[in-house]
Amino acid sequence: MTGHVLVLGGARSGKTAFAEQLAIRSGKKPAYLATAEALDAEMRDRVASHKAGRGDRFTTIEEPLALSDALMAAAKKHDVILVDCLTLWITNLLVANEDVSKAVSELGATLVQLKSAHVIMVSNEVGLGIVPDNAMARTFRDLAGSAHQRLAEICEEVHFIVAGLPMTLKGATGREPRIHEA
């Protein structure tokens, strides 16, 4: 694999499973950079389930805010870094009153200069539904959409996952892993 990859999809669409398979097939020492914060019991259960599902195939790194710094540090030891997920990272930035646009620009600059590792980023496509009824949700949707556009420009490959099926929007075709083995 060359270049970086953006994997988009809705909730429970299979995007993380697809990204994990890409990472495993692409590197010898993959890292899983998790942006989630387990702030309640339900999220703690989700995080534990994800970790158990990955087993020892990945080194897990947890970083909810300083994504660019974490990528640069992880690239020193890992040839592939899976970031899951950008929409949780954007949420974390909003809650921390950070400048999301500035952080996305910094991430873009980091990706452009990062040549020692392939980065596979997972994110929820949240702009396909109805217009949210409150200002905060609309701001989040707009920021996520802008981030996806900026990162899709930089990435060599962009995939959209629907019902467990990958659609290649940009880049290589014909070698996407199957999400569910028969």
From TrEMBL:
Q: Which catalytic residues are annotated?
A: H50 (gmp-histidine intermediate)
Similarity remark: Belongs to the CobU/CobP family.
The answer on whether this UniProt entry bears the keyword Kinase reads: yes
- Briefly state the protein's biological role: Catalyzes ATP-dependent phosphorylation of adenosylcobinamide and addition of GMP to adenosylcobinamide phosphate.
- Protein name (database record): Bifunctional adenosylcobalamin biosynthesis protein
What general EC class does the enzyme of this chain belong to? transferase
Q: Which Gene Ontology terms cover its molecular function? A: adenosylcobinamide kinase activity; ATP binding; cobinamide phosphate guanylyltransferase activity; GTP binding
Give me the reactions it catalyses: adenosylcob(III)inamide phosphate + GTP + H(+) = adenosylcob(III)inamide-GDP + diphosphate; adenosylcob(III)inamide + GTP = adenosylcob(III)inamide phosphate + GDP + H(+); adenosylcob(III)inamide + ATP = adenosylcob(III)inamide phosphate + ADP + H(+)
Give the record's pathway.
Cofactor biosynthesis; adenosylcobalamin biosynthesis; adenosylcobalamin from cob(II)yrinate a,c-diamide: step 6/7; Cofactor biosynthesis; adenosylcobalamin biosynthesis; adenosylcobalamin from cob(II)yrinate a,c-diamide: step 5/7
Q: Which residues bind GTP?
A: A34, T35, A36, K51, A52, G53, R54, E62, D84
InterPro entries attached here? CobU/CobP, P-loop_NTPase
Give yes or no: UniProt keyword Repressor. Answer: no
As recorded in UniProt, its EC number(s) are 2.7.1.156, 2.7.7.62
Keyword field: ATP-binding, Cobalamin biosynthesis, GTP-binding, Kinase, Nucleotide-binding, Nucleotidyltransferase, Transferase
Pfam families per the record? CobU
A single GO BP annotation from the record?
cobalamin biosynthetic process
Q: Give the classification, highest ranks.
A: Bacteria, Pseudomonadati, Pseudomonadota, Alphaproteobacteria, Hyphomicrobiales
